[in-house]
């Protein structure tokens, strides 16, 4: 059996006494917790009068005895999903004084940890959640933000939603992923070793694992029982494996580790979820919000993984990659063509370029996958962070050939001719806008030279979100990008918004014809 390298010592920080109001523990604090670089962010929860709080607090893992007050949220929330990714802090849903919320707020994380842009702090995402939702467990895989479980106005849900994190900080359109095998209002999630094939979600009685990688389609869940029924379950990816903790029905604290050899009981101090952060050789969990109070459990010394922004996806050509690391860590990186795995970064890797004072990481000039790793004196190396990018040279503009209106699936004749034939607009491509006013399932059907003599152009189709960078997600998790499917027919479920269908010539020829229709399945 592999040994567990965990020091089971739990310290209550920021206060040696009970909180000044309310009972301790996340079931009553109901705040969100996230980290970026060296900083912890405590968001929402109950205020001193027992109402949803808009408060946001920041503390450094290097100086955990001091909290700094950040700008309040636009509204007080309980049980929000809080995520730090893409150099932004995101707050999604939660329960307000009026009920569960679909609002999504975000703000920029400055290098010193302070939140806000130059002239404002909290931005409202243009695309709210598809439904009012609180208590959802968030995780990020391949540049996509997932929300799993939680509760809606109808009660506990097993729904899983996901959306791309856009380069400008906005969150893109929302798509349904395979639902959890069970519905639970109290869920927690983590990603083991940053591997998209090792996503874990836990509820009170069941565990689910999923494969959300681009090469593991279609996405699916497998399910197993927790070692014991838990209240306030907690999951965390630690150097010793996956940590599962919580409280038994009798109120006893419970904890187990799984390093690939099954769940092994571990005697730890009281740990409760749902939110937990592994940062600076420690596991941090929420105790209370008044005053801000968290617990610290020391773990095996391992460097924290570098934070990469943008995290993955289609990018404008020459996009610069930004990296944030824990103070004192050294970061190295390697790269390989997209679709292949880069060599593991080592301290002797030739691309040892990062420093906190003058970041010098690469730009995206071609389809590529980068591998980043952090190293810390006296500690294990961090897990490897992979980020994959595809540059798009014409994604910042579109000259619309026309608007598509869903109707019958009878094909209409179109041609690869843009309204202008001069300037940067290609004449071997046609762009069409598609306005969706309500959640709707639509089928895109087409025909071209390769499957019908009635047409003269061989074409590929891409359905893009309004940033003209992000491809629409298909039900199996794949992208509606450069599709040449033999069936010439794809069905998508879209949230309200404007989308763009890009039809491009496969062989570069201009002016050819093709058939196209958009309608109900």
Structural class by helix and strand composition: mainly beta
Apparent shape: globular
- Count up the domains: 3
For the sheet with most strands, the description reads: 4 strands, antiparallel
Q: Runs with pLDDT <50, length 5+?
A: 1-27
Note down, in words, how this protein is organized.
- The protein is an all-beta fold.
- It is 1% helix and 43% strand.
- The protein is built from one helix and 44 strands.
- Strands 1-28-27-26 form a four-stranded antiparallel β-sheet. Strands 2-3-4-5 form a four-stranded antiparallel β-sheet, with no helix packed on it.
- Strand 19 and strand 20 (206-210) form a beta hairpin.
Short description:
This protein has 521 residues and is an all-beta fold.
Task: List descriptors.
four-stranded antiparallel β-sheet, Neuraminidase, mainly beta, Jelly Rolls, 1 helix, single chain
Map the helices and strands.
Blueprint: E1 6-12, H1 26-29, E2 32-36, E3 39-43, E4 56-60, E5 63-70, E6 81-85, E7 88-92, E8 95-96, E9 99-100, E10 104-108, E11 123-124, E12 137-141, E13 144-148, E14 151-152, E15 155-156, E16 160-164, E17 175-177, E18 188-191, E19 199-202, E20 206-210, E21 221-225, E22 231-238, E23 241-247, E24 253-258, E25 263-265, E26 276-279, E27 282-289, E28 292-299, E29 307-309, E30 313-316, E31 319-320, E32 322-324, E33 330-337, E34 363-364, E35 368-375, E36 385-392, E37 400-404, E38 412-415, E39 429-436, E40 440-447, E41 459-464, E42 489-494, E43 497-505, E44 513-519
Parallel strand pairs: 30-36, 37-39
Antiparallel strand pairs: 1-28, 2-3, 3-4, 4-5, 6-7, 7-10, 8-9, 10-11, 12-13, 13-16, 14-15, 16-17, 18-19, 19-20, 20-21, 22-23, 23-24, 24-25, 26-27, 27-28, 29-32, 31-34, 33-35, 35-36, 38-44, 39-43, 40-42, 40-44, 41-43
């Amino acid at each position: 059996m592999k040994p567990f390298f965990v020091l089971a010592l739990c310290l209550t920080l920021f206060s040696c006494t009970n909180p000044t109001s309310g009972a301790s523990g996340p079931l009553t604090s109901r705040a969100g917790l996230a980290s970026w670089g060296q900083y912890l962010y405590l968001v929402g929860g109950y205020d001193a009068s027992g109402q949803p709080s808009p408060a946001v607090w920041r503390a450094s893992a290097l100086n955990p005895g001091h909290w700094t007050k950040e700008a309040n949220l636009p509204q007080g929330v309980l049980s929000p999903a809080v995520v730090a990714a893409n150099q932004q802090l995101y707050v999604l849903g939660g329960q307000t004084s009026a009920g569960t919320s679909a609002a999504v707020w975000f703000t920029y994380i400055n290098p010193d940890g302070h939140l806000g842009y130059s002239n404002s702090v909290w931005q409202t995402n243009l695309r709210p959640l598809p439904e009012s939702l609180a208590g959802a467990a968030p995780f990020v895989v391949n540049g996509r933000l997932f929300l799993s479980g939680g509760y809606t106005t109808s009660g506990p849900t097993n729904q899983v939603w996901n959306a791309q994190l856009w380069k400008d900080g906005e969150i893109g359109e929302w798509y349904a992923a395979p639902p959890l095998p069970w519905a639970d209002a109290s869920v927690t999630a983590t990603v083991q070793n940053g591997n998209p094939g090792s996503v874990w979600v836990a509820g009170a009685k069941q565990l689910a694992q999923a494969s959300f990688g681009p090469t593991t389609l279609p996405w699916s869940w497998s399910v197993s029982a927790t070692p014991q029924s838990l209240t306030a379950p907690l999951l965390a990816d630690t150097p010793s494996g996956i940590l599962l903790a919580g409280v038994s029905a009798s109120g006893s604290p419970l904890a187990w580790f799984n390093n690939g050899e099954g769940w092994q009981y571990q005697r730890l101090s009281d740990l409760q979820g749902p939110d937990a952060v592994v940062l600076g050789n420690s596991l941090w969990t929420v105790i209370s919000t008044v005053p801000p109070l968290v617990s610290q459990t020391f773990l095996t010394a391992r460097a924290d993984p570098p934070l990469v922004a943008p995290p993955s996806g289609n990018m404008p050509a020459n996009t610069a990659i930004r990296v944030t690391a824990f103070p004192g860590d050294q970061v190295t990186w390697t790269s390989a063509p997209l679709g292949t795995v880069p060599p593991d970064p080592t301290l002797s890797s030739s691309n040892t370029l990062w420093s906190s004072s003058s970041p010098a990481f690469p730009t995206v000039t071609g389809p590529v996958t980068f591998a980043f790793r952090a190293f810390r004196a006296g500690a294990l190396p961090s897990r490897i962070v992979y980020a994959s990018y595809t540059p798009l040279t014409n994604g910042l503009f579109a000259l619309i050939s026309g608007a598509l209106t869903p109707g019958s699936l009878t094909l209409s004749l179109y041609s690869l001719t843009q309204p202008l034939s001069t300037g940067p607009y290609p004449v071997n491509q046609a762009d069409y806008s598609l306005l969706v006013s309500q959640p709707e399932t639509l089928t895109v059907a087409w025909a071209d030279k390769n499957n019908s003599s009635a047409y003269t152009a061989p074409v590929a189709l891409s359905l893009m979100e309004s940033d003209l960078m992000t491809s629409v997600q298909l039900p199996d998790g794949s992208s509606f990008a450069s599709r040449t499917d033999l069936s010439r027919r794809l069905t998508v479920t879209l949230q309200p918004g404007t989308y763009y269908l890009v039809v491009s010539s496969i062989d570069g020829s201009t002016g050819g014809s093709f058939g196209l229709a958009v309608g109900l399945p």
